[in-house]
Amino acid sequence: MIVEPKNKKITIMTQCELLGLSRSTYYHTPTNKEYDDKLIDEILKIQEETPFYGYRKVTKELQNRGFNIGRKSIKKLRKMLGLKTIYRAPKTTDRNYSHKVFPYLLRELEINKVNQVWSTDITYIPTPKGFIYLTAIIDWYSKKVLSYRVSNSMDKTFCIETLNEALSLYPKPDIFNTDQGSQYTSIEFTNILKQNQIKISMDGKGRATDNIAIERFWRTIKYEELYINEYKNVKEIKKAITEFIEFYNKRRLHSTLDYDTPDKVYYQGLKNEEAQLAHNLQRLSV
After folding, report:
1. CA Rg, the chain, in Å?
2. CA triplet 224, 227, 232: central angle to 5 degrees?
3. Residue 149 forms beta bridges with which residues?
4. Are 155 and 180 contacting, i.e. CB atoms less than 8 angstroms apart?
5. In angstroms, how far is CA 217 from the centroid of its own chain?
6. Tell me, what DSSP letter sits at residue 47?
7. How many other β-carbons are positioned within 10 Å of the β-carbon of residue 227?
8. Under a CB-based contact definition with an 8 Å cutoff, are residues 183 and 161 in contact?
9. Which of 9, 270, 277 is nearest to 142 (CA)?
10. Strands lying side by side in the sheet with 145-151
11. What was the pLDDT predicted at 27?
12. CA pair distance 214, 145, nearest whole angstrom
């Protein structure tokens, strides 16, 4: 049912009362400005680029980018999107200069199959009682998240556990890419890769774009789940992460995958690899 302003038998006030609708809500007509997708996209970009900006600086930045909007509207939109100013972000990886650093192997590499390249990283998640840390391993070609762990600290143990789980569940990759953090340059971590005859690749110093596949996943889980919801405790956050990754792998459509899901692309890629291997073996036996 909707309010019919031209109804001569029942007044607008009576219609609002019958529908449980306040007259102020009825007479408020949302403007395009409030629900403009381009504006919201730009606010999210600014949040990612400068998470330490408050709503005043965000407003000024938007005005500099050509948007005609005031502080009150931005404050309202940021609240609606669940965006908060992050004043001090913790470092997720620190370099240990006594550890060996490996060269970056992905520059100009055409990634055209599953398990060709895996990559990993650590990101932080603010909670009411401080920060927790999420690590994940992703297949570059299919964008599938292969394994993940949440931890209260950035000790190398939870990174090693995540790696061991991925290797136990899926065929090993040709190349494994990380940043130069001490968790990944540690002897314990790199030895697992060497023992599995996996080539080790590491980002250049300060080059987050070298690990773009996992960086895009961080953006996705934060802006589609973690930044737009409120959680009472860490247990709720862990549950939300688990449910989102399940959704991300199995149901979320990706434009870069021709609107398929990571699971579908990954497992189809495995079938194609197996079929190619069987074909090659058959040719060799002839």
Report:
1. 24
2. 120
3. 135
4. no
5. 3
6. H
7. 19
8. no
9. 270
10. 145-151, 130-139, 117-127, 175-178, 199-202
11. 46
12. 9
Tokens, residue 92 = 């997720």
Q: Give the pTM.
A: 0.67
Q: Any idea how long the chain is?
A: 286
Look at the block and give the residue holding tokens 């504006």: 39
In whole angstroms, what is the distance from residue 45 CA to residue 40 CA? 9
Strand partners, 121: 136
Taking the C-alpha atoms of residue 137 and residue 126, their distance in angstroms, rounded to an integer, is 21
The pLDDT tens digits for 96-127 are 666 788 999 998 899 999 999 999 999 988 88
Which helix (H) or strand (E) segment is 95 a member of? none
- Cα–Cα distance for residue pair 204/211, rounded to 1 Å: 10
Strands 130-139 and 199-202, sheet pairing = unpaired
Q: What's the Cα-to-Cα distance from 202 to each of 149, 171, 192, rounded to whole Å?
A: 21, 21, 15
pLDDT less than 70: residues of the chain = 1-35, 85-98, 205-209, 278-286
Burial of residue 11 (CB within 10 Å: 0-12, 13-18, 19+) is exposed
89: nearest Cα among 119, 53, 39: 53
Contact call for residues 119 and 211 (beta carbons, < 8 A): yes
